[in-house]
């Protein structure tokens, strides 16, 4: 059987949606070099990493 999903499942957990003004705000980080969306990695030293240009910021 399939599992029941939460309301915040998938890509919507990365956005904050304001229903009154009908806007969505991205909660993650964008790369300062190329503008791509950065991924957060907890393994080892926690860091934000850009997969496109390999820029990294350590937390």
Q: In words, what does this structure look like?
A:
- The structure is a single chain.
- The protein has strands spanning 15-18, 23-26, 39-41, 47-49, 56-58.
- By secondary structure, the chain is mainly β.
- The N and C termini lie far apart (39 Å).
- The chain has a domain at 29-59.
- It is extended, with a radius of gyration of 15 Å.
- The protein is built from no helices and five strands.
- The mean pLDDT is 87.
In summary, what is this structure?
This protein is mainly β and 59 residues long. It is 0% helix and 29% strand.
Number of strand segments: 5
Query: Termini distance?
Result: 39 Å
Envelope shape:
extended
Cα Rg = 15 Å
Q: What class would the helix/strand composition place it in?
A: mainly beta
Portion of residues in beta strands equals 25-35%
* Helix-strand pattern: EEEEE
Main beta sheet strand tally, sense and closure: 3 strands, antiparallel
Mean pLDDT: 87
Please report the number of helical segments: 0
What's the layout of helices and strands?
Elements: E1 15-18, E2 23-26, E3 39-41, E4 47-49, E5 56-58
Antiparallel strand pairs: 1-2, 3-4, 4-5
């Amino acid at each position: 059987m399939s599992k029941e999903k939460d309301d915040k499942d998938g890509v919507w957990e990365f956005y904050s949606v304001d229903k009154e003004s009908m806007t969505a705000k991205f909660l993650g980080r964008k790369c300062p070099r190329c503008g791509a969306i950065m991924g957060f990695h907890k393994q080892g030293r926690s860091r934000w990493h850009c997969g496109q240009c390999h820029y990294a910021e350590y937390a």
